[in-house]
């Protein structure tokens, strides 16, 4: 599904050039659930920004389903991104003053759906994450774990080909983190959602099917975990 070939990334300014991804070669197949680990500053965010079609400025090749999508215009690329990848962040990035339903519905509206076409899809995805009874609640009325479930529902609503989760349990206690990871595993094993997860927490790794470790912009380890 995803193929990075000899990818190098530099952050350049007038005085210096910082080499943050070094000769990355990476193939990701549909149905994988990958943990990316590495110290702060090792290049994890840079890598997932590239994988999520956010960053086009790099050397080497990124093929998605055999195509070099990053050559598309910004407008086409943002449309592709909206239909192809779902993002989940540590801080949830939800709209505080909107209801659960409205938060989850938003990417559908961006994708061209009309208000009267969204109800069934939003209800189905809320059911999947176990929030059927919370649709009309405001975000403020939910716990941190429930807010992360809303963010996952929002990431899933356009049926993306893969999910990128950047420290999705970073703001949650260990019990809630476990619940969130179990949901990711269900999505991965039952619905074949491909998941790429950045984490600092080694406890999250055994839930994944593969571990990629990064140091100083290089992949230093790439190993299979559960099958
Ligand atoms: N926009 C930028 N301009 C210049 N340098 C940057 C930029 N973004 C990141 N960097 C540098 O690139 C390197 C990799 O950063 P990156 O954010 O990818 O690391 P990370 O592994 O995600 O770190 P963390 O775990 O702290 O989020 C760091 O040295 C960082 O300072």
From TrEMBL:
Species this chain originates from: Trichococcus collinsii
Domain of life: Bacteria
Record-level GO cellular component terms: membrane protein complex; plasma membrane
Keywords noted in UniProt: Amino-acid transport, ATP-binding, Nucleotide-binding, Transport
Gene3D superfamilies: P-loop containing nucleotide triphosphate hydrolases (3.40.50.300)
GO molecular function, one term: transmembrane transporter activity
Name of the protein: ABC transport system ATP-binding protein
GO biological process assignments: amino acid transport
Source species taxonomy: Bacteria, Bacillati, Bacillota, Bacilli, Lactobacillales
């Amino acid at each position: 599904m995803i193929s990075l070939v000899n990818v190098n990334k530099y952050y350049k300014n007038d005085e210096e050039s910082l080499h943050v991804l070094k000769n990355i070669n990476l193939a990701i197949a549909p149905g994988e659930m990958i943990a990316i680990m590495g110290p702060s500053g090792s290049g994890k965010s840079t890598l997932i920004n590239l994988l999520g079609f956010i960053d086009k400025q790099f050397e080497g090749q990124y093929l998605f389903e055999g195509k070099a999508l990053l050559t598309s215009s910004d407008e086409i690329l943002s449309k592709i991104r909206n239909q192809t990848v779902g993002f989940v962040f540590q801080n949830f990035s939800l709209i505080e003053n909107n209801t659960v339903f409205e938060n989850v519905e938003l990417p559908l509206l961006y994708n061209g759906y009309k208000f009267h076409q969204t109800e069934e899809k939003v209800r189905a995805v809320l059911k999947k994450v176990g929030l059927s009874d919370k649709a009309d609640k405001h975000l403020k009325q939910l716990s941190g774990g429930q807010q992360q479930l809303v963010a996952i529902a929002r990431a899933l609503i356009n049926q993306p080909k893969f999910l990128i989760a950047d420290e999705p349990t970073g703001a949650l206690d260990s019990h809630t983190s476990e619940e969130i990871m179990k949901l990711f595993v269900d999505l991965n094993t039952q619905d074949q959602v491909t998941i790429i997860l950045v984490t600092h927490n080694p406890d999250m790794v055994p839930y994944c099917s593969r571990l990629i470790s990064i140091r100083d912009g290089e992949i230093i380890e790439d190993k299979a975990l559960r099958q």
